[in-house]
Amino acid sequence: MNKIKTLIVDDEALARDKLAIFLQEEEDFEIVGQCSNGIEALQLLRDSYPDLLFLDVQMPEMDGMELLRNIDVQKIPCIILVTAYDNYALQAFEYHALDYLLKPFDRERFLMTIKRVKEQMLLHSQGNHQTQLLTYLKDSLPKEKYLEKIVVKDGGKIFFVKTKDVEWVESAGNYLKLHIGKSMHLIRETMNAFEQKLNPQEFVRVHRSSLVNIEAIHHLESWGNTEFTITLSSGYQVQSGRSYYSSIRQKLQL
């Protein structure tokens, strides 16, 4: 069996180092990269085809679940989810992760995972393995009905806003500002939670405090080498964040 090319993605340096030390003691494994967030990993996965991915769930900018939704289906490796929170176990099964490591794990638990990985690699040739991964990815991607209407309260009135009419969303503390043309509505919600309810084919996160309706984008202008000025149909301009440059380019196929 060829060496199992492995990518480690975790925002905690100590966690990455621990996995690297354990893996370096296993002669069948080769570490091909270490990333501190999902955006870095997404960039690396464009250029390489690791066999195995140790993936932290909770990370800033782009978390593990969002990374999985954005990986090219032809490049999906075997997945080991790594997290300090046991409430993500169900999602591990939903994404057909080969295993689920709960931090802090010891060497004995790590070796159990390694054993499963080796068995998986031996059971499937690379071609069959890719076919299996493509099948379970199709089955495991989120199937929930994405948010189509948003409940907005204004004084004593309660009314609905169609999601497709929202041009862009801006965070404001514990609230979000929904921009619809020249109008603005305020709802109590966090940006991360709200983003998960939206169809990723219709909205793109452009900054830690803003996301944009793709259909509302009129044009983009590069600002330096890592940012965009995004002009919307209403004429309003939104500035992207540096850490979102790669994900914007991929989502908009730039």
Automatic annotation (TrEMBL):
Q: Which InterPro entries match?
A: CheY-like_superfamily (IPR011006), LytR-like (IPR046947), LytTR_DNA-bd_dom (IPR007492), Sig_transdc_resp-reg_receiver (IPR001789)
The record's SMART domains line, in alphabetical order, gives: LytTR, REC
Its domain of life reads Bacteria
Alphabetical keyword list: DNA-binding, Phosphoprotein
Q: Which GO terms describe its molecular function?
A: DNA binding; phosphorelay response regulator activity
Q: Which residues form a coiled coil?
A: none
Give all 4-aspartylphosphate modified positions.
Answer: D56
Residues in domain HTH LytTR-type?
150-254
Domain (Response regulatory) spans 5-118
Q: Which Pfam families match?
A: LytTR, Response_reg
How is this protein named in the record?
LytTr DNA-binding response regulator
**What species does this protein belong to?**
Microscilla marina ATCC 23134
